[in-house]
């Protein structure tokens, strides 16, 4: 018989397990609680962590990323950039990144084959393999380097391809980033420190074995997917199986295989079927009231494909047309509004749900806290949403 899990219970789990009702002490705790931090927009990593730490600190996140190297930035699930604890990164690399790498390699070889490649190499696959090895040699010699520095040393990285030929957004670009992405997906190189501030999206690269002595452990992909599914269900369950499949980017067969190795219980999510770990069926105690201002692409709203149970009907204002979450205001496990930063640095909010005076005051206090923490820093989300544009005054 399916375990009935109410919306109220799902919201209680979200607050407790995503470290929003009770804040964490370290960035590693935050990343582990969420499985992975979205990192497509570099600011998200810092803002997501700041919303969940007792003492928010840019320096603490940089310590974990670049000094202790307990967190790793990498492309993996759905060809999306994440920051993950090292142990989770190994599962994501074997259980998701390798599949993405194979597809992207096939696509790049196809583009090279149809548009040509220089140097009289017999085939595009051979040309690409030689280019990768030359890039690795150059990177090992330098220790760390940007993509521009590597392309200056490895002429093949300047090979140009026409992308989206014949479409309005047709563009000509070098293969540099695509080669580096393949090496990263394969677990041979890794992004190090950014060139500029914590808002920068341009990074130095290093070989993984020099950045992380010993590299990542090689895991069986099936086992890696099972452990990744276990971790996701601990953080995001109960949930429909389709949510797990969407979040990981797995095929239906891969998802079924990963779940088959787990001891699961069926869940009744107010009439919608879902699953949860068999040892996780007891209700989570209702936490103390809480509010949070989460950034664009935060892993909480981006953790599920089906979001009606926490969105309060506000998707059109707070998400873009591709399903990317903008800055959201949360109260007790549901989205009640949005926020933005204005040019003068003030963080402003708009409450879209009926929450009462006490919650409104708590949201205002959290906005003041975030304004003070950001100081002179100005953050514009990479993916703009209707309410964020309106509130920021910068459409």
Question: Mind explaining what this structure looks like?
Answer:
- With 395 residues, the protein is an alpha+beta fold.
- Helices cover 44% and strands 17% of the residues.
- Among the domains are: 3-85 and 218-280, no CATH class; 291-392, no CATH class.
- Strands 11-12-13-14 form a 4-stranded antiparallel beta sheet. A 3-stranded mixed beta sheet has the order 1-9-10. A 3-stranded antiparallel beta sheet has the order 2-4-3, sandwiched between helices.
- Helix 5 packs across helix 8 (176-185), helix 5 packs across helix 10 and helix 10 crosses helix 12 (252-260).
- The longest helix has 30 residues, at 86-115.
- The model has no long low-confidence stretch (mean pLDDT 95).
Q: Compute the number of helices.
A: 16
**Euclidean distance between termini CA atoms:** 51 Å
Spans of at least 5 consecutive residues whose pLDDT stays below 50 are none
Given helix and strand content, the structural type is alpha+beta
Largest beta sheet, briefly?
Answer: 4 strands, antiparallel
Q: Can you count the beta strands?
A: 14
Helix-strand pattern: EHHEHHEEHHHEEHEEHHHHEEEHHEEEHH
Which strand order spans the largest sheet, edge to edge or round the barrel? 11-12-13-14
Indicate the overall shape.
globular
Q: How would you state the average pLDDT, rounded?
A: 95
Beta-strand residue fraction: 15-25%
Name the helicity range: 40-55%
Rounded radius of gyration (Å): 22 Å
